[in-house]
Specification:
- With 296 residues, this protein is mainly beta.
- The protein has one domain.
- The chain contains three helices and 23 strands.
- The strands form six sheets. The protein has a nine-stranded antiparallel sheet with strand order 2-3-4-5-18-17-19-15-16, with helices on one face. Strands 6-23-9-20-21 form a five-stranded antiparallel sheet, covered by helices on one side.
- A hairpin with a 2-residue loop joins strand 20 and strand 21.
- The longest helix has 25 residues.
- The chain is globular.
Length: 296
């Protein structure tokens, strides 16, 4: 039996097909299709290597400019990793983009970006390349200022003196922060600790145990990184308020949440220290857009 379609039905089918194709393209453009805005050459400043050989162990690194110690803690069915680091100059805290490209949907794993930049230690960043908004300054270069909507519209600035400063996106022209010595901005959040006090975290997602990555400051040039494992039998993850309280307990006066979940990765001296929650066919790491790292 043959079916005959009226002109109206055919037009409706064509319209639906076009809408589906447009929807697929919009989704691919947003989440899959890579866009290169700028190719970065030597994005991270190359600093003079230490005069004397570094003392390196499985969970520590020491030279005249950089001191790193890593502790892994298990408590209350949560595994988390604390990196305590002291720097002689904040420029040893650097950032790098996947494939040295500032763009969208351009991804590599934390390990790949770290190895490319000869990092000593690295964590995942704020995954700026999965979205079009946020204040983006890296290694003293201004890239973007598209303010996010409240309440998630506060960025962390790290300036050339090693201070942490929290700013509201869109309050001023983002490029003006360069005149005040901004080296990096991280656009994720929320702010966990400010002026030594745990901040109010009332969003629903903050109350869920998840893998986490966050950065804190005890004082300028003395920093803490915390990476929390999660979504496994060994570690269920951590709530953001619990993470904030942990930073305060460790002496941090400022702390800021970075991208978490499957992105949470701690890489040191050529290997992954934590247990990322992503397990795929080809990689046990999520591909991301950017990292923070310690290196020369």
């Amino acid at each position: 039996m043959k079916f005959k379609f009226s002109k109206t039905a055919k037009l409706a089918m064509i319209t639906v097909s076009v809408c589906i194709l447009l929807s697929v393209f919009v989704l691919m453009d947003a989440f899959l299709l890579p866009k290169t805005y700028e190719v970065i050459e030597n994005s991270a400043e190359q600093l003079s290597p230490p005069v004397n050989p570094a003392v390196i162990s499985e969970y520590s690194y020491n030279d005249e400019n950089i001191a790193i110690s890593i502790s892994t803690i298990t408590e209350d069915n949560v595994v988390y990793h604390i990196v305590d680091m002291r720097l002689s100059d904040v420029r040893y805290l650097q950032s790098a983009f996947a494939k040295d490209i500032y763009g969208k949907n351009v991804f590599q794993t934390t390990s790949q970006i770290a190895e490319k930049n000869q990092a000593i230690l690295a964590i995942n960043g704020d995954f700026y390349g999965s979205r079009d908004d946020g204040l983006i300054i890296r290694n003293g270069v201004f890239y973007r200022d598209q303010p996010r909507k409240a309440p998630d519209n506060r960025s962390l600035l790290i300036n050339d003196q090693g201070n942490f400063i929290f700013v509201t996106e869109g309050a001023v022209d983002g490029s003006s922060y360069l005149e005040k010595g901004a080296l990096h901005s991280l656009s994720f959040g929320p702010v966990l600790v400010e002026d030594g006090k745990v901040q109010k975290l009332n969003t629903q997602i903050s109350k869920i145990e998840n893998p986490r990555t966050a950065i804190g400051m005890i004082e300028p040039l003395h920093y803490l990184l915390i990476v929390v494992d999660g979504r496994s039998k060994q570690s269920e993850g951590m709530r953001l308020d619990t993470l904030a309280k942990l930073f305060v307990r460790l002496g941090a006066v400022s702390a800021y949440n970075l991208d978490g979940g499957g992105s949470s990765t701690l890489w040191y001296n050529g290997k992954i220290i934590n247990q990322p929650s992503v397990s795929g066919l080809f990689s046990d790491e999520r591909s991301i857009s950017d990292i923070l790292f310690i290196g020369y």
